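Table S2 (text version). Query chain:
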Amino acid sequence: MFDIKNSVRAACLIAAAMSYQGPALAGEILRVGGTGGVNEMVKSLGVLFAAETGITVELIPSLGTGGGNNAVADGVIDLSISGRPLNAAETAKRLTVAAEFNTPFGLVTSHPKPDGFKSADIAQLYQSDKPLWADGKPIRIILRPTNDSDNGVLGQMFPGMAAAIAKVRNRADLSVAATDQDNADMAEKIPGSLVGATLTQIKMEKRNLRFVAIDGVEPSLENYEKGGYPFGKSLFIVLAAKKSPTGERFLAFLSSPKGLAALREAGILLGAK
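Corresponding C-alpha cell output:
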C-alpha cells in the first residue's frame, strides 16, 4: 500500500509548504523541462501555480529526461522532471532529486474492447510472431528506443520481459516511437496497437486509448495506491545544487493541499512507493 507518511522527501516538502510565502514579483518565470509524458500535467499545475503565486510556468518541450537534466545543470531551466533516477554523470554535475512522484504504468491499446492479460503470459505474447487479441485481431506492438526509461519500467514488470523486448527489437515489422507523444500518437493510429504508457499521460492528454487489465485489475490510481495494481513508474523532480528560488516555491506548492489535489487529479501520487 502507498504510504506518504513514510516518504522522507514528501515530509520535507510538506514542511516547506508550511513556510510557503505569498505572491511573487510580477514577471517571474519558472522554466520546466524533462520527460514528455508529463507535459500536460505540468501545464495544468502551472495554471494553478501561477494563480497562487504570480509565477508563470514555461514548459520547454521535447527535451526528454537526459536533455532536461542537462538543461538544469547548465542553468537553462529551473527544474526537470526525470523519467528515471539520476545517473553517475548527472550526479557528478551536482544535480539532486528534490521529490519523487509515482503514477500507474500499464499497457494501452487502440482496440475498442481489449481483453485482459495475465502477467505471466505477457513476455511470451511480445515474442510471438503473430500475437492476437481474443477476437482474433492482430496485436501490433510498438517499441521505444533502447535508451528510453519506459524500457526499464516495462522490462521489470513481468517475468522474462526484459529479454523479450530485447529479442523483438530484431523484427523489422515493429514500429519504434521516439517520444512519449509519438508513442501515444502511433498507438491511436494503429489498429490493435499495444504500448506501455503512464496513467498521467493518457489521462491528461485525453488519449483515445484504453488500458489493458492485468491479472484482472485495471491500473487506476485507487488500485495502485491500495496495492491491488502493483505496476508503476517513478518520476523525479531534479534541481541543481544551487537551487532556483522559483523551483523551491513550486515544490512547496506541490505539497500544499491544492498541489496534492491537482496531482491526484492528474493520476500522480507524491512520495516514494
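Notes on Table S2: The chain has two domains: 4-102+234-270, 104-226. The longest strand covers residues 96-109.
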